[in-house]
Amino acid sequence: MLTHLNKNKIIFLDIETVAQQPNYAKLPERLRLLWDKKAMLISRDEEAKPEEIYERAGIYSEFGKIICISIGYYEPKLKTFRLKSFFGHNEKALLLAFAEMLNRYFNHESDLLCAHNGKEFDFPYIARRLLVNQIKLPKLLDIAGKKPWEIKHLDTMELWKFGDYKHYTSLDLLTAIFNIPSPKSDINGSQVNEVYWKDGDVKRIAKYCQNDVLAIAQLLNAYQGKALWKESELEYTELIEIL
Hints:
single chain; Nucleotidyltransferase, domain 5; globular
């Protein structure tokens, strides 16, 4: 499976997102009214109030923001898998740094982006937030007008579906069945909003995000029947706080 892929050309990524405000009351009136409408559509509990589910706003790019983007890639000269994260409170500065990196180092026709559920979440979320922040889309994320086979995106969840469009499988479950170390050793996705807005510990979130990236890369190795990256082959290069 996927034997044609060149590991030197794949950029693995994961993002962490939170609600744009610490709580519902902080929302500007116009957005608060729009969140009320959104909440009616997404709540399974008819009795739940919009403010009670506002912590879920980070899932939606119109009401959330990106606080961390982690990437991983293979460095053939050093024979290491390198991990790098951009994180911080300033979303526009974070996205600028990420876009500049993609444009400078990953701008070739053969480069690929890979994420878990990336086609449904990470890739469109990043693209939308780039547009909101008036940042030009990097080549790898600018898919308008492209044919499906021209889009350079891999999705480890989609690959696991094998055409079954109804099937959702979490990264945590897939790493378990392939005997890959769990990326959820500290926190999980449902805790990110609280860790950010209550604890302010964005660096902790960045480390968690890096673990997800490594898990995605290891999962693709498993799909291909290849050995997992060894600890000696990993290089945690940088946690870059964007101010």
